[in-house]
Specification:
Layout lengths: L5 H9 L4 H7 L4 H11 L3 H5 L11 E3 L6 E3 L9 H6 L13
Antiparallel strand pairs: 1-2
The structure holds zinc ion.
Zinc ion (ZN) binds next to helix 5.
C-alpha cells in the first residue's frame, strides 16, 4: 500500500520524475503511483499542465523566474507551471518578482 503524501508526489513530478521512478523510490508499482496521484489530484497532467504520456506540446524553454527548463506551450509562455502557481493571483501584465 502506497502511503506517500500528495505534497511529496507533487514535488517528485515537478522534479521531473516519472511515475515509474516514483514507484521505484517507494518500492511500489507504476500503476499504484498513477492511481494514487489521480486520487490525490496530483497527476502529472494536473501538476505540469500537460500529459506526459505523449510528447509535451511546445518546446523546452528556460523559465524567466526560476531559470529551470520546462515545456513551453508557446512563444508567450515563458514562466514554468510551479512559478505560475507561486505567483498566482498577481497581475501578470506587469511581470513577476523573481524569488
Ligand atoms: Zn520557474
Amino acid at each position: 500500500m502506497l502511503t506517500v503524501s500528495a505534497a511529496a508526489l507533487r514535488q517528485h513530478i515537478i522534479d521531473g520524475e516519472t511515475y515509474a521512478a516514483i514507484a521505484h523510490r517507494y518500492g511500489s508499482s507504476e500503476g499504484a503511483v498513477t492511481q494514487r496521484c489521480r486520487r490525490l489530484g496530483v497527476s502529472a497532467r494536473q501538476v505540469l499542465g500537460y500529459h506526459r504520456a505523449g510528447r509535451p506540446k511546445g518546446r523546452r524553454r528556460m523559465c524567466v523566474v526560476c531559470e529551470s527548463e520546462f515545456s513551453s506551450t508557446g512563444a508567450g509562455n515563458v514562466v514554468c507551471k510551479p512559478c505560475k502557481q507561486i505567483h498566482a493571483g498577481e497581475n501578470w501584465t506587469s511581470g513577476v518578482t523573481p524569488i
